[in-house]
TrEMBL record:
This is Metallopeptidase, family M48. GO terms for cellular component: membrane. One of its GO terms (biological process) is proteolysis involved in protein catabolic process. Its EC number is 3.4.24.-. Binds 1 zinc ion per subunit. Gene3D superfamilies: Metalloproteases ('zincins'), catalytic domain (3.30.2010.10). InterPro entries: Mito/Outer_Membr_Metalloprot (IPR051156), Peptidase_M48 (IPR001915). Residues 71-246 form the Peptidase M48 domain. Keywords: Hydrolase, Metal-binding, Metalloprotease, Protease, Zinc. GO terms for molecular function: metal ion binding; metalloendopeptidase activity.
Length: 254
């Protein structure tokens, strides 16, 4: 490669990297519901649209909705009780709660903007308070704008990786660092959602200690050799119990 071409590549690569950092810095904003400063590059309207558009396809991946309207209504009732008794009611998000037909995969998750899902495999092991804990946790993800934050972080590392590739041979390394950072941040999201879930339970009249029992259920479901999907995307339940206990003490004394 000619010396001039090499210099141009370095210049372009540095320009792309600089753009990534400038965009990231300009996308900083404070979450009005949690007070945490986040990197977000989409509006709440865009979050809602992503969730609404993705919900049907996601549901089909878990066998669709559970074919019992009474149970569906029950999940919806508990979810909206949590919303109405918490700061969630002040948000613009469109909360909707879905019981999925999958009776093998232990999982619960939320999409941007409000859709919340729980599989029947997990649902059937929970009492009402424990179900409230799981749904409250997922509402916490929505309020925390965790999906939007992960999308913004992913775009940052993708742009950074492109710049590193153009400027040299560091694209793969940068991309790997980005993946590790996303995993670490995601664990922080889970702990924040646990904290919010405890608060929502207390505000709605549920015993927050039931959240600890949820962690024990997840741990037991994993067994010695199997990792349920819920745990694969969340910190180990044992590691979350101590933080949940701290949240219980914090909110009970308010």
């Amino acid at each position: 490669m000619r010396r001039g071409s090499w210099k141009i590549r370095i210049f372009i690569g540095l320009a792309i990297v600089a753009f990534a950092f400038i965009k990231r810095w300009s996308s900083k904003e404070e979450n009005p519901y949690t007070g945490r400063v986040q990197t977000i590059n989409m509006s709440t309207e865009q979050e809602i649209a992503i969730g609404l558009n993705s919900a049907p396809e996601i549901a089909q991946q878990y066998g669709g909705l559970y074919p019992d309207e009474k149970l569906q209504s029950y999940v919806d009732q508990i979810g909206h009780k949590l919303v109405q008794n918490s700061i969630a009611r002040e948000t613009p998000y469109k909360y909707d709660f879905h019981l999925l037909a999958d009776d093998q995969t232990i999982n619960a998750f939320a999409l941007p903007g409000g859709p919340v899902f729980i599989t029947y495999a997990l649902f059937k092991q929970l009492n009402e308070a424990q179900l409230a804990g799981v749904l409250g946790h997922e509402i916490g993800h929505v309020i925390g704008r965790h999906s939007a934050e992960r999308i913004a972080e992913g775009e940052f590392w993708q742009t950074l990786s492109t710049g590193a590739s153009v400027g040299g041979d560091m694209g793969g390394l940068v991309g790997g660092i980005g993946q590790n950072t996303l995993l670490k941040n995601g664990r922080g999201d889970e702990l924040e959602s646990d904290d919010l879930g405890v608060l929502f339970m207390i505000k709605s009249g549920y015993r927050p200690e039931e959240m600890i029992k949820v962690m024990e259920i997840l741990k037991a479901a994993a067994g010695p050799n199997r990792t349920p999907e819920f745990q694969s995307t969340h910190p180990d339940p044992e590691n979350r119990i101590e933080k949940i206990q701290e949240s219980i003490e914090k909110y009970r004394n308010q």
